[in-house]
Design brief:
Structural class: alpha/beta
Radius of gyration: 17 Å
Number of helices: 6
Number of strands: 11
Distance between the termini: 29 Å
Largest sheet: 7 strands, mixed
Low-confidence stretches: 188-213
Length: about 210
């Protein structure tokens, strides 16, 4: 992480507990996606599977100046079985083509799109993300760009050289905001409080050195 990194303590804890490494895709479980939308800014997507009370972040994708069909094609090429696609509050905003991002995704995945309401303050999303970090396992290779975004997501700097309480807006904030979509989806009043219920699994267990099957 860097000076002023917002999630420095959480990143360190993930590494100390061995929760970053190879995280396998489980074809018997749905993959849920969590987005931050942009055009000149990056559009970012986290790909997540729930394993008991834990969240396996198995993949991440980001790009800019690409229309939604590009991201849908990328998702389909991954070959995952998808669950719910979670979009930020602006997912229902209409584009110049009069079709919102949510509408375009619903056309391909009917009944599988959820809009996560905007929070009053950015700090609320950051606090929610801090809690979720403790439940996350990151695939080192497939989420490397998203991991770097989380490591470099930082507060702004005032003219006197002190830190502000507002995050700096740069390319790292898009991946971090996509991660906050995950965190806020678990607390949203208009969303289900957890992913579709799945049976508890016993083939994963936490150990001092990380996750093992």
């Amino acid at each position: 992480t860097i000076d002023g990194a917002i999630y420095a303590a959480e990143i360190e804890k993930v590494l100390l507990e061995g929760r970053r490494g190879k995280v396998q895709y489980d074809p018997s479980r749905p993959v849920h996606t969590f987005w931050d939308l942009g055009w000149n800014d990056l559009t970012s997507i986290w790909f997540v599977q729930q394993v008991g009370v834990y969240y396996n972040l198995i993949n991440y994708y980001q790009n800019r100046l690409q229309k939604i069909p590009h991201y849908l094609e990328h998702m389909q090429n991954l070959g995952y079985v998808y669950g719910i696609h979670n979009l930020p509050h602006d997912g229902d905003n209409e584009t110049l083509a009069a079709r919102s991002t949510a509408k375009m995704i619903r056309d391909v995945y009917p009944g599988k799109v959820r809009i996560i309401p905007r929070v009053a303050k950015k700090d609320f999303g950051i606090k929610a993300a801090r809690v979720v970090f403790d439940l996350c396992n990151f695939d080192e290779e497939n989420t490397s760009d998203g991991w770097q975004a989380l490591c470099h997501y930082q507060y702004g700097i005032k003219e006197d050289g002190t830190w502000t309480r507002e995050p700096k807006h740069d390319p790292n904030s898009n991946g971090a905001d996509g991660f906050q979509t995950l965190a806020l989806s678990l607390k949203s009043e208009t969303a289900v409080k957890k992913f579709p219920k799945e049976p508890e699994v016993t083939n994963f267990r936490p150990t001092q050195n990380g996750w093992m099957s």
